[in-house]
Amino acid sequence: MANSKLKVNHIQSNNHIMMHQRNDGIPFDATLFKDININRSAVERRAATLSGRRSIKKEWQAAWLLKAITCIDLTTLAGDDTRSNVYRLCAKAKAPVRKDLLVAMGMQDANIHVGAVCVYHNLIKDAVSALGKSNIPIAAVSTGFPAGNIPLKEKLKQIELSVAAGAKEIDIVVSRRLVLNSDWKGLYDEVAACRRACGEAHMKTILATGEIPTYTKVAKASWVSMMAGSDFIKTSTGKEIVNATIPVSLVMIRALRDYYELTGDKVGFKPAGGISKAKDALNWLVLIKEELGNDWLNPDLFRFGASSLLGDIERQLEHYVTGRYSASYRHPMA
Ligand SMILES: O=C[C@H](O)COP(=O)(O)O
Question: For residues 267 and 91, what is the distance between their CA atoms, to the nearest angstrom?
């Protein structure tokens, strides 16, 4: 299709490597968040308006979907992960969209790749060898993922081992009991210790919001995680019964906006778990744009944690280019 070419300014190219300044955190100060009280119905009302408000069509939709790809932490976190499925995942991470589709969109030289590959510790070495010199970072889930119910000493050891094995990003899970008991200083100390163990690796802190009973606690846990030096806050492990939702994302995004206003530090956001449709990805990008602005719309500050989103995005891009939908089995990977 002649009109399927994207204009250069529809999407920035994706030659980035994690260059963003880190969040060093601030001393624990409960007065900064103790009065937070989130109005659940106001959050849910705002979230409900999101999908009907903006309709992104044609070349703009294609450009936003390519942008979404650059923000995916392409993930496999299964008990039966092997070297071969990690190799396939990494091949897809380096070339996430079929060449013919990129050529049709005029994007073959844009170096589109995903934001990171996310695996369990034992698969890091396979990801390192499969990704080669691609500059795509490896994110490892550590600290007793997904439940996090192991001693802190072991959590820190896991982080150190993952960094030594080549992970440039570490996704930690918080101890939910600290959040449930409102032990905010305990949570701060745990997250700050993890941050020290990460060294140069960027740290994403998973709150597992599906196991946190109120939005007020989600907001407070977000604050404490940022104060303790998290580079990203992340909704979910993908293993909770309820994973990423728009309302919980809104609560976390507003906490990081307030944290930025206070400290000048931009903390990233990663919704994860159950995001598998291109239209959901667009909703999250719109939410980020409306609440935080364009600064956050890049892989340094925004990621999707997703194992099966890429396949649907590629299918939508094929529809954009050819005018037809292919069967989903033609895009089986991710
Ligand atoms: O962090 C990423 C999640 O585990 C992925 O969840 P998903 O398999 O539902 O996409």
Answer: 29
User: Which H helix or E strand runs over 159?
Assistant: helix 152-165
Report pLDDT digits (tens) over 18-36.
456 899 999 999 999 999 9
pLDDT the model gives residue 2 = 41
The interface pTM score, or ipTM, of the predicted complex is 0.97
Token pair of 186 as six digits: 């305990």
The verdict on whether omega for the bond into residue 146 sits within 30 degrees of 0, i.e. cis, is yes
Strand partners for 202: 169
Pocket of ligand 1, beta carbon within 6 A: 75, 77, 118, 237-238, 272-274, 305-308
Q: What are phi and psi of 212, to 5 degrees?
A: -110, 125
State residue 229's pLDDT score: 98
Domains in the chain (CATH in brackets) are 2-330 (3.20.20.70)
Q: What spacing in Å lies between the alpha carbon of 263 and ligand 1's midpoint?
A: 31
For the stretch 187-242, pLDDT in tens is 999 999 999 999 999 999 999 999 999 999 999 999 999 999 999 999 999 999 99
Confirm if 226 and 255 have CB atoms less than 8 A apart: yes
DSSP code of residue 238: S
